[in-house]
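To: structure subgroup
Subject: Chain for Friday's discussion

All,

I'm putting the inputs and outputs inline so they're searchable in the archive.
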Amino acid sequence: MAVEDAVMSGRYPHQSPVSFSSAEDKRLTEYAMKMTCCQFLRNKNVRQLSGGERQRVFLAMVLAQDTPVIILDEPTTYLDINVSYEIMELISSLNRKLGKTIVLVLHDLNLALNYSDRLAVMENGRVVAYEEASDHRVHSCISDIFKVDIRRLTEKGKSYYYSFKI
């Protein structure tokens, strides 16, 4: 399947089973590809893409659905560290630019701490903390559950968090 067709498939819930894509479907497909910087891939087969390119296309498919809430489950799985940060930067940018609520499931604590506004920390299927990502209570809870230490770095006026094994 070509990238453009894959992104257009995000519009299926909005289409009639007997009609072709509308001008609105095409507009939203183009917009989604532009927002995720994958319009130059439009004619490539999805199977020929790298992992990062494929994630951009999947994000475009989700954006094309034009929902107020986006739910992403492990959007950085199988990506190398550089591409993981690129994808998280893209997701963060989409959140700021589009004002959509984005719910992420992440197991990478560093990504979760640095790219989330709020964190829900779970243990044995229960939410044990739900606070702003910078809140010490969340850090303490993460430390207790995962046996890691969380440190805050400040560089050029911006704070970053990282975790490491105790």
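Points worth raising on Friday:
The chain is about 40% helix and 25% strand.
The first helix runs from residue 3 to 8.

D.
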